[in-house]
Amino acid sequence: MIIMIAAAAENNALGKDNEMVWHLPNDFKRFKQLTTGHHIIMGRKTFESFPKLLPNRTHIIITRQKNYHPEGCIVVDNMKEAIEKAPQNEDIFIIGGGEIYNLGLPFADKIELTKIHSTFEADAFFPEIKSEDWKLEHEEFHPKDEKHNFDFTFQTFIRK
Question: Which residues of 119-158 are buried (b: 16+ CB within 10 A; e: fewer)?
Answer without folding.
Answer: ebebebbbbebeeeebeeeeeeebeeeeebebebebbebe
